[in-house]
Amino acid sequence: MTYRFPDIPQMKDIRLKLENKGKRLRFSISGRKSLIYVPLIWYFIKWLSRLGIILRRNGANVYSLYIPPIPSEADNRHLQIFLNAWLFKKKVPFAVTIAVTDECQLNCAHCSVLENAAGRRPMALAEIKQAIAESISLGVTNITFTGGEPLMRADLEEIIAAVPADKAVSLVFTNAVGLDAARAAAISKAGAFGVQISLDSPEPSEHDRLRGREGLFDLVKKGVENALGEGLMVGLSTYASNPSVAEKKLSRLAELAAAWGAHEVSVFDLIPTGRLLRKTEVMLTAASRRSLLLEARRLNRRFGGRPRIITQCWTNHGRGFARFIGCLAGHYQFHISASGEFMPCDFTPLSFGNIRDETVAGLWEKLLRHPAYKGRCYACRMQDPLFRKTYIDSIPQGADMPYFIDRLSSPNCG
Ligand code: SF4
What is the pTM of this model? Predict the structure, then answer.
């Protein structure tokens, strides 16, 4: 397949031919001054080959749930975003998380849904479709529907179908309670690329206790089976805490993922947000991060690609496999809350305005101009003491969330 780069004026006549030869991705490039792009493309492809393939499908390789299959039209857009950022310092987002509801059947101890947001009007179907269309126009190639629990929306299939498959992949982040065979078939038919299913612990009783529902672990296992049966990509999503790292729980969880046939495991840091907003003591220590990275590396070697173990530590503290990515917020990603508030990421309880009042493109520009986001930040802002002191600790107790950022003073990101 031949990639073009119409949104990069300097690369308008460049043609990049990408071909999968078994596990290898080969490229050739032509056009004016094409040779100057060769080292960067070569580096990117080498990085992908180190990452490895988790699935071959319809002649394309899938490297991760977060990256569109390669080659594909959506991936052409995705690569264009990286080249724009790396070569021309233009920030175009590749991912958006859209909360389609705040409702959920569970009661998780670590729930990241915004507190005190109950009075806000949820987005109607037309508003969500508008948010999708505007995000795609901005450049996004990965749309993840979150909540609350997105499967609680009866019109979720219509929402998924609004994502054009040639422009972006769509994922559903679910607790699996509603992921029976019929619903898995319906979201697959609507065009979903995959599901991310939450699994907090490899121990059934602990997972059920942390989420406040007996039998939930079994529903997760069944949900994985149902999703795989309908041809969906399946990721398990978990989080690392200092105790779970010390007990090497990731290894046991990865064993389950392998046994169940999941493609990927995403390990997020336990971030003080939502119900844990003021509990900074839960943050990972440097020793835990090191240990987690080593454990993930060992597991990836052992499984040789599937399941892939992806840790948030890869990107957000300067030493991981994808350290060049850094904090995604305001660089590659943004979040839209269930009531349409435009936020830097789904863990940051700050709003830049509402998509009902301003365009997504306008809100993205506003985010990029803000002192907290205009610079590149390689650490997770929500775990950065200076950022938290300025933008999180100063949110008044009991305030409506997300908190409008213009009400706070603004030094630069640390
Ligand atoms: S602040 Fe940045 S690194 Fe931290 S969770 Fe949000 S996007 Fe990720």
Answer: 0.95
pLDDT digits (tens, 9 = 90+) for 290-327: 999 999 999 999 998 899 999 987 777 777 677 778 89
| Residue 283: band (very low, low, confident or very high) from pLDDT cuts 50, 70, 90 | very high
- Is any ligand 1 atom within 6 A of the Cβ of residue 317? no
Q: What is the DSSP letter of 354?
A: B
Look at the alpha carbons of 374, 380, 385, 390 in this order and tell me if their dihedral is positive or negative: positive
| 195, 222 contact by CB (below 8 A) | no
Beta bridge partners of 20: 25
Nearest residue to 268 (alpha-carbon basis) of 281, 287, 282, 279:
282
Token code pair at residue 26: 């080969």
Please name the residues in contact with 402: beta carbons below 8 A apart, sequence gap of 6 or more: 114, 117, 337, 341, 343, 348, 349, 350, 351
Q: What angle do CA 322, 323, 324 make, to 5 degrees?
A: 90
How far away, in angstroms, is 383 Cα from ligand 1 center? 8
Looking only at the bridges linking them, the beta strands covering 233-240 and 264-269 are: parallel
Minimal-distance CA residue to ligand 1 atom 6? 345
Inter-CA distances, 258 with 63, 251, 253, 391, Å? 16, 11, 9, 40
Question: Which residue in 169, 172, 184 sits closest to 66, CA to CA?
Answer: 169
Written as one letter, the residue type at 265 is: V
Tell me if 183 CB under 6 Å of ligand 1.
no
Query: Counting atoms of ligand 1 from 1, which one is nearest the CA of 329?
Result: 7
Cα–Cα distances (Å) from 197 to 19, 203, 211, 235, 323, in that order, read 32, 16, 13, 6, 25
Nearest residue to 342 (alpha-carbon basis) of 198, 127, 141, 75? 127
**In degrees rounded to 5, what are phi and psi of residue 17?**
-95, 120
Question: Nearest to residue 188, comparing CAs of 226, 141, 220, 155?
Answer: 226
CB distance 92 to ligand 1 below 6 Å: no
Q: Answer left, alpha or beta for residue 55, where phi above 0 means left and psi between -120 and 50 means alpha.
A: beta
CA 238 to chain centre: 13
